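Troubleshooting: if your tokenizer reports a length mismatch, compare your output against this known-good record of 171 residues.
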Amino acid sequence: MNIDFSLAPWGMGFAAMMFLIGNGAWTNHIVRHKPWMGWVIWGLTVPGVIIIAAVIELRLSGQQGIWHLLTSVNIENHWIVATLYALISIPGAASVLFRQNISWTRLATLSTALIVMVPLGNQINDPNDSRIALSLGITLALCGMMFLWSTMLDCNPIHRRKTVPVEESDQ
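Known-good structure output:
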């Protein structure tokens, strides 16, 4: 099997982009106020991520066109992208659905970015280059963008009481 390791930065960048978009769809003030909107926003971004994956594949393979690539590709590739996108979006989704405050959400997204992205360059198994410097650079950029996203667009969840205390109901 002949592997072209020169394309590794594209894959690493795409993984970082999926992480940013997937968790960004969940960690914003709209979703914090209405958690069901997280599913809507995330669901709307899935086709976009699949199209971006096809565009990157088109750019790297030099094939005919994006429409040809989207329709002629093995459907399994689309499912792989969608599944990886779902898995990489879990920290933001779980933080919102479990109503974690902003500090726990930042910890979840940034620690997951570190755990996933730092060893990514070494996992490519390029015999000539471990690509750890590239991994660290992409991880640093991703963590910076996630922190900036969290600072600008995220907020603490609204805690609604589901029951009324007995003292208040008597009045």
